[in-house]
C-alpha cells in the first residue's frame, strides 16, 4: 500500500538543528579556506578541511531529505545515493588528479567497510542496548544484501584475474572499464524498483515524524551550495592530505581506508543509528547497507570512467589482496546477519571490533 507524500510543513522553515548545521558548516568552510590560502600548516589545513567535508556531507543529506520527501521514500533513497556521495566523489577525483590512486582504491573499499562494520555495528549496539534483540525481517533488506554481494563480486573480479594470473591479467584497464559499464547498467536497471514505493515497511518508519520544512527552492539551493562548496573543500583536503600523511607517518592505504572514507561518507549514516535507537531496525539496516551498494554500483564505476575521460591518473578495479579479502568478509557478514533475521548489541560490538582490527592492519601500509 502506498501513502501520499507529506504535505508542506506549516511551522518555521529552519529549526534549531538546521541553523546549527548551517552555522557550523559556514564556519568550517571559512576556517578551512583561510587555512589553505594563508598557509596555516598542512596538518591544520587537513584537519579543518576534513571537518568541513563531513559537515557539508551532512548538509547534502539534509537537503536531499527535505527535497526527496515530496516524492516518497523510494525517490529519496535514489537521490540520497546519487548525491550523498558528492563529497567523496570530489575528494576521489582530486586525489586521482594528484596521482593518489592507492588512496582512492583504499577509500572505496574503506567506505564499504565503514558502513558494513563500523556504522552497522554502532547501530546494532545503540538499538540493542535500548531495545534488546531487534528484528531484520524484510524482503527488501535481503534483496539489497544479495545485490550488494553480486555488485561487490563484479567490482573486485578484475583483482581476482590478476591474483590468479589468468590471461586477462595485463588487461586490467579494459576489464575495469567493462566491469564499470556493467555495474552502471545494473544500477539503471534497478532504478524502477528503487523508485517504486514499497509497502508499509518502507513507507512507515522514516518520514512519519514531520513533513518537509524547506520549500523546494530552498532545498535545491542548499543542495547546489553544498555541492559547490564540497568541490572547493575537497580540493583543499586533498592538497593537504599527502603532506599530512608524510608528517604523521600514515600510509596511503590507512589514509584512504579510514580517514578519507569516514570523512566523506560516515556522517550521512548517522540517521541509521538514530533509526536503530527508535527500534526501526529494518529500515536502519536497509539505509546503512544501501550506501555501500551505491559505492559498488555507481561511485567506483563512475570514478573509473571519469579518470580516463578527464585524463587523470587512471583508476582500475584491481585492488590489493588484503582489500579484496576485507571487503568480501564484510559483505559476507552483512549477508549472514540478514539471513539470521535478528541483531543485538553483542553482534554490533563484534562488528566494531572487526573494523578496528581491519583498520589497524593497514596502519603500516
Number of domain units = 1
Regions with pLDDT < 50 over 5+ consecutive residues? 1-7, 197-209
In the CATH hierarchy, what is the class? Mainly Alpha
CATH architecture title: Up-down Bundle
From the spread of the alpha carbons, the general shape counts as: globular
Listing every helix as H and every strand as E from the N terminus to the C terminus, the arrangement reads HHHHHEHHHHHHHHEH
Q: What name does CATH use for the topology? A: A middle domain of Talin 1
What is the strand tally? Answer: 2
Largest sheet: 2 strands, antiparallel
Fourth-tier CATH superfamily name = NCX, central ion-binding region
> What structural class should be given to the helix and strand makeup?
mainly alpha
The residue fraction in helices comes out at over 70%
